[in-house]
## 1
Amino acid sequence: MYLRAISFLRRQGQDYVSSRDLADQLHLKSPQIRKDFSYFGAFGVKGIGYRVDTLIGRIREILKLSGTQKAALIGAGRLGKALALYPGFGLYGFEIVEIFDVSPKKIGKKIGNTKIQSIKHLGNLEKRGIRLAILAVPAEAAQETAERLVEGGVRGILNMAPCYITVPKRVRVQTIDIAMELGILPYYV
Amino acid sequence: MYLRAISFLRRQGQDYVSSRDLADQLHLKSPQIRKDFSYFGAFGVKGIGYRVDTLIGRIREILKLSGTQKAALIGAGRLGKALALYPGFGLYGFEIVEIFDVSPKKIGKKIGNTKIQSIKHLGNLEKRGIRLAILAVPAEAAQETAERLVEGGVRGILNMAPCYITVPKRVRVQTIDIAMELGILPYYV
């Protein structure tokens, strides 16, 4: 969240940020922020604050987000397409370098500059430097596809399919179920 | 999660489900599931299990998801378009009935059967039976747009913009930051 908030300030042309400004923006207390930043090895200057570029560099390093993070996208439907071209991934250094689908109608076409390949040609992603994958397939295909990804050496999966997927413990999964998040709201409103 | 899992089984043609099958699928313990279902007023039959339709009806009722849930979509970019046509919302009874954008290039065009309107014509959404909105605008426009939605009587917002939004306490916000979820993975893999 720090990375996101500070990058936002940089886009707005800010070179320095105070812990107080960040506290307001992130609904945190400024002593907490100063404590966290000192753990990061970043020290502010009284009356000026923290250098935005230094903070971004340090946080990226800590999160292992330095350099480019190659990712594969599985599923070139409407959501997959939006994800393939999603500008927000840039902040974290993600680059979707390969796209796969099962549909003969889609295979061979391009999204941006990336050609959609048959899932049959998934192969060993790890050998090609890809350890992350975004799963944007229907729920019915999610488990089987996740297993293929694991076989292909993927170590982290962003699961956009509305279901659980079961993977070995060494593989980390983050699940986003868009409809379920919306589904929570009517109870409260 | 129960609703999602049980609906999945129904799509696969199952009429009954046992607490044990659900436990396997949801990584829960079956006594917990039986306890939850008895709170819901749903009782299984030994050797047969729970009637899928009964469970779905009860859970929908509890979550206030009976009937149609009208929602507005703000932002008709790539992600907004994918959301407008996202089939997963059907499970919760959501229907995106109005779409808004600021871009003159988009206003007047259609996504599916819904015409994109100017955000200037947002007006009183509540009067038109819309209490929910999906915010799919850039971070820079999110706060201002959220305030317009609140003025328009919206009570629940699904925020897809990569930033916090500040709203009055009576308004509930669920935030999905797709890039941030992916951004967590490299640390672990």
## 2
Amino acid sequence: MRDTATMVNGFDMSSVDALDPELRTIVERRASLLGPAYKLFYRNPVRIVRGEGVHLYDADGQAYLDAYNNVPSVGHCHPRVVEAIARQAATLNTHTRYASELILDYAERLLGTYPASIGNVMFTCTGSEAVDLALRIARFCTGADGVVITANAYHGVTAAAAEISPSLGPAVPLGRAVWTVAAPGPGDTHDSLAARVRTAIADMNRHGVRLAAFIADTLFSSDGIRPEPAGFLRPVADAVRAAGGLFIADEVQPGFGRTGEAMWGFQRHGAEPDLAVMGKPMGNGMPIAGVAARPEILQEFGNKIRYFNTFGGNSVCVAAAAAVLDVIETEGLRENARVVGGYLRDVLEGIAKDEPRIGAVRACGLYAAVDFVRPGDGEPDGDAALRVVNGLRERRVLISATGPDGSSLKIRPPLPFSRPDVDQLADALTATLRTR
Amino acid sequence: MRDTATMVNGFDMSSVDALDPELRTIVERRASLLGPAYKLFYRNPVRIVRGEGVHLYDADGQAYLDAYNNVPSVGHCHPRVVEAIARQAATLNTHTRYASELILDYAERLLGTYPASIGNVMFTCTGSEAVDLALRIARFCTGADGVVITANAYHGVTAAAAEISPSLGPAVPLGRAVWTVAAPGPGDTHDSLAARVRTAIADMNRHGVRLAAFIADTLFSSDGIRPEPAGFLRPVADAVRAAGGLFIADEVQPGFGRTGEAMWGFQRHGAEPDLAVMGKPMGNGMPIAGVAARPEILQEFGNKIRYFNTFGGNSVCVAAAAAVLDVIETEGLRENARVVGGYLRDVLEGIAKDEPRIGAVRACGLYAAVDFVRPGDGEPDGDAALRVVNGLRERRVLISATGPDGSSLKIRPPLPFSRPDVDQLADALTATLRTR
């Protein structure tokens, strides 16, 4: 089921003839204009024309419950964010080489959500650019090159970020200075990941490579979502620093309250990063991302190296990002992620209890994974997960799949997701499981 | 005058005490929040709060004539673009994995401005990301690693783009597989650059490195703006292809009608690229950029490699970009760049005629360079150019400087720049030259 670009839940162009004629025309036109690198979701792609809150609407006016998109994190087309974008776009949209208080007010608020040790922030447009910049900073700061990552990590699509993203598949080689460790998994204790990282660093050193950084998505999204036991990243950070490297927390997915327990994923672990990378939900869909840093790490880099990102921290994207912080606070979305996320986990565990095809449920806030396995031998079953993803799509509930085998449902809705939304998702899941 | 990060026209933090108290507070707060990598323009930074057309306004309501910013290419806060952004932000802002005609309609229009050989486009958020992607494609497609660039090129700030950007200064090493050639200059004939590129490729091959690509800004902006004699890029493209490499046209600055003579800089040269990189003016300040490509080059890359840029080609940025094409067409901005650009060149040449400190004027459309030299020996005089840039800023006309010595004024206004705007710029320049 996985195509050669190893994308989970990608539409396969060889089945284009099975689509309804109008959609088929769009899909073929798309292939001819955008080329083969662009993949659509689902066996029967969705044609979306409008969004509002936790719903997307297709060209026929049908509503889809969005249980997938973490980018429009405060809800599709949130009026407060839309208003901020429209107002700022009509007033000024410029870069960071003129003095402006807009970006400073935002930077101050954003840094206020971090531990006191994190005192600076630099803005980019995408999480990939933020990861790329964090790598540049870490390598400059340490004078070293080596990076340790988890086995199915995803950190982005620039050349440097792709080199530390094994989940992009075998056609994208890892960098020569990149070492992988097994992701956190069943049976792991508090120190298991740290022990694997120490072993990887020792092997790296044996090959004459010194450690620049360990980087991890603090929820291990592409490794199948691995939140427990919270705390295991703290000894990892200690091991990394003992080897002279930096601990980079990739908060592109866990950040901005997704876990419910904290604003940032590393906080669940009692660990403090040297650099933290943010992205996706930061501007509710506007291209803004960034690197938060301990100031002493940026000092020499910033003095010697000119970094200017034309659109990074531009006025409109910053206005959107400030409105996102407003909404997270005034609507209590972090608390909602905790409470509704807990309910989601309970409901999924209830479904899993009587379902031999489900091996495990893992969840943290509004981010849940449901592992599908072959009932006979318990092996990961990516085809089963994919059938469920497509079955939910036919019931107009949008999710996807993740993990090294694509065998885990990936449930990651906008943060205003409610208990009735969970119930709708659960009903659709139950109905789908009944027929497949 | 050039700081260690070799930024032309950067504010020097050691002179922060000289600023008025309110501005000083902002500048110090900025350094403390954003860190030392963020540089401001001018000895006396400008505090901008509003933009409209070719004007920016400071906190005291003073108007500045913008003769620098090419990003708000159709004018600051153009109502048609603002309206498109506001409308789309309120309707839908999503990624490219749902079927949508919005991005296809735009892609089709955009590709319609290219030669027929360029049939695909991929979207990113920044020019840096587009350059980075073009390098990934070129290296995948050729199986080679080597890149030839000009001596003071600038192509971006991702790790891979910075490796081909010598203008970032000595603290940013060029890649080991990167060879530089002297930029086009006085005395060059139609084949001079091609001859230098052939020599570089031969030397590269002698070192066991094969050519993946030659990449150049088709106006050679950071090399001091080198438009003439138009045509010299054609034999370069031939030499590059003969060596098995790809010709990548960096259109981030020349593109979207800036040259007046054509939509794309390579068209002035009668050359066709294999890949073209777009950015800055594409969305009038919204983060959208892209790579246009010959389809056969993308074929294997796209089939084997998953490329997904979360914000790349998102609905709001595409709506802004479509409005930009509308405005360029309906307001005849390319023609305006040709006509007003010609007038700008004439006016600058008139000023240069009686001014021994000016060595040369080069211009192409609404992009002009004025070289400052020491009257005694004709050596480049970066300090003189910088004094003029700051003198114009005090007269509320915004430009900057460029070139390997920072000795060329960089005049690059939004495309609706008018003859009276040129006159105002000329008056301010004359007045500045009189006092310095």
